[in-house]
TrEMBL record:
The lineage of its organism: Eukaryota, Viridiplantae, Streptophyta, Embryophyta, Tracheophyta. This is Uncharacterized protein. The keyword Endoplasmic reticulum does not apply. Belongs to the methyltransferase superfamily. It comes from the Eukaryota. Pfam families: Methyltransf_29 (PF03141).
Amino acid sequence: MGSVSLKIGDGTARFKRATICTSAVNGLMLFSVLTTNLFALYAFTYNPSNNSSQNQTPLHRAHKNISLITEQVSLIMDEIQSSQKKLTQIEKELLGYESIDITKPGLSNELKIFLQRHSLPLGKDSRTGITEMVASVGHTCSKSMDLLSQYMNYKVNGPCPDDLGLAQKLISKGCEPLPRRRCFAKTLNKVGFLYPFPASLWKTVSDKIVSWSGLNCKNFACLSGKKIGKDCVNCFDLSNVNENQRFVKGKGKNDFTIDDVLSMGGEGVRIGLDIAGGSGTFAARMAERDVTVITQALNVEAPANDFIASRGLFPLFMSLDHRFPFYDNVFDLVHAGSALDVGGKAEKLEFLMFDIDRVLRAGGLLWLDNFFCATDEKKRDITRLIEKFGYKKLKWVVGEKTGSGKSELYLSAVLEKPVRV
């Protein structure tokens, strides 16, 4: 069975080839229908032919037939209920729920204890209908059970293994949130290496007060000159002119300055979120203007979270596949660059944009900073997606930059979220 593509608005819905699981569901439903019809046909056409039945009165025979029909209907209902349970279980398996099998041989005991469900001490909760507590762990973890078991293999009440690289590998595979552990994380002696705020914003960070676990580089000299994504080029060298002048002086028409953007926030900007903020320079510049910014970052090739925290800023260690752990309508500003294009997939970008819209308050600003448009089609796609939200375009610039020896297209914009009724 081939794939079918339907145009729905600006998106495309695709129906893929039938899988073994979907074929099993269809087969089970067909079997239930056939069984039900056969039982019904048998119940209504059955007629005893022995001699004793001929001597029975019509009323007696009618009563016996009704009893037989009732019995057959009961069997049919049992069969339907059994089929419904099987269908529900198949649906759960298709969606990935309840797919983490804690009886699998070789799993660490701590993982089994954490994933085990616990009944509520007072029984069913009258408001939510919940009867038991379920561990908070990403259902995609079921696809990385060996790695997850390795992550949960440790000595209880002892030191945690040096496995920050393993934790990030699990997160990158969609195993998020990770299970909690009963061990003590490795501590780093930072006494004498931290500076008071705000001097800490631009002081050189020592190699000794960050964790290099799971990283190829083991010092900041190794990171010098490295390009860690389009939004972080040599961004861990705070003495680098390009880094310490970012957001203050623009090199081109696509580079907006912080002061220009803040002047567009009519009701004031007090708190913000920086997505894939690299070394935290955006948050540092905002802190100089009394604006608190949380920086979302992963330790991709560099100890970003330790580095950001050492500058006296707030790091948030999570991937962009995870729902933002913030309440609705709380941020005055959200800043993001090319990292928004998660995996280059239109559907993932749309999910992410809706979550950004959720945490941004009405009248708040979305600063799209040098979003890389690989093609004109990509530019049209991001433009259509933004227009779907009805944001007011306070500033909109599409320009070219030279990158990798060729001209590249970038979009920068400042957008104001509307009030929706």
